[in-house]
Amino acid sequence: MSVVELRVPVIGESITEVTLSQWLKEDGDYIKRDEFICEFESDKATLEFPAEVAGKLIIVAQEDEDLAIGAVVAKIDTSVAAPQGSSIGTAPAKETPKTETAKVEKTPAETTYATGHPSPAAAKLMTENGLSAADVKGTGKDGRITKEDVQQAIAAKKAAPSPSPAKKEEPVAVATGTSKGFSRNETRKKMSRMRRTIAKRLVSAKNGTAMLTTFNEVDLTEIMALRKKYQERFVEKYGVKLGFMSLFTKACAKVLMEMPDVNARIDGTDFVYHDYADISIAISTPNGLVVPPVHNAESLNFAEIELKIKALAKKAREGKLTLEEMSGGTFTITNGGIFGSMMSTPIINEPQSAILGMHTIQQRPMAINGEVKIRPMMYLALSYDHRVIDGSTSVTFLVKVKKLLEDPTTLLLDL
Length: 415
What we know:
The protein is of the alpha+beta class and 415 residues long. It is 29% helix and 23% strand.
C-alpha cells in the first residue's frame, strides 16, 4: 500500500489558515490526478484543491474544519487501480462489434466531481431559498450548478402554482395568555472564514491604531450637471456609465499624490510611502465586505476606473476574485450612501492609514452668495491613523478632495 498525503498548500503571504468549505468527492472514491476534491475558503477567496496523484481518496479533514497551511487534508492510496471503464491506467480498448459500439454511443456522458455540485455563490443562494441539488439543474461545466441555474430555479418555483392545501380540522382555541405569533426559537450558524477575518481585522484596527475621523460636506451640483450633460456620449463610447465612484476615486488619487502622508503606512518603526495610488473599493457581497483595489488609479482615466470597478464588483459577488486582485491597496473608499447612510465613521482598512466614507446625497438648503438655494449635498468622513497623519493634514486632504469635486473641470484638466 502506497499512500500520499495531500496538505493545504501555501496560498498567499498573508494567509495562514483556511476553512474546508465542502468536499467535492466522497471518501473511498477513485480520484484522477489533478481532479478537484474539495474547496477551501480563505478570508479573500474560495479555491478548489486538486489531487496530486491518482488513487483511492481517504478523507482526513472534515467540512467546516479550520486548517493551518501544511495541514493534512486527505490521503491518496495510489496502489488502488482505476475502476473498470476508466481511461486512467488501463490498456487500450479492444475493437468491439458494431452492435456494442452503438450501445456505447448511447451511454450518457460520464459523471464527474462537478456534476450536481453548486459553486460557492450558488450554494449560498440555494441555502437562502431552501433549495437542494435535486431542485436545480446544473448547466455549468460537467454539470456544475451555477448561480444563474439557481436563479432560474427560484424564478420557476415562484411561477409554479401553489398546491391547494389539504383541509385540516380547525384546532380548538385554548386561552394561554400568549400571542399565537410569538416564537422563542434560536438559530446557530457558524461564521464564515471571511466574516471571522473581517471581525478580527475591524477589532485590530480599532485597538491597534490611533484612529480619528474628520468630516466635511461637498456640493455635488457641478458633478451632477457634468454627468447629465455627457452621460449618453460616455456610455456610447465606453459602454459603461460615468458614476460617482470614478470621480471620487480620481479626486482622491490626485490628492494622494500631492499628500504622501495620507497614502503611507506603518511597518514596524518605519513609514512606507508609495508613489502610486492603489485605491481599494469596498464592495458588499453575500459573504461579507471585500475591498479589492484599483491599481494605479492616479494613471487611469474615468472610463478605465469605472470598467475596473464594475469588473471587480461582479467577480466579488460571484466569489471569483483572485488573490492577486485582492492584494495591495494604499487607501480605501467606502460608499454607505448606496444603503441610505447619512453619516458614519468608517474603520481603517489595515495596514492602510486612511479611509474615505461617502454617504447619501440629500437636497438641502444652502447659503450661496447670500441666497438660500437647494443643493445636492453629501457628507464626507475621513478616518485616519493619527500616528501617521496629523490632524491638519487630514483636514487639508478632505478640503482638497471637496474642491476638486465641487469644480470637476479642475480635475479633468489636472489643475
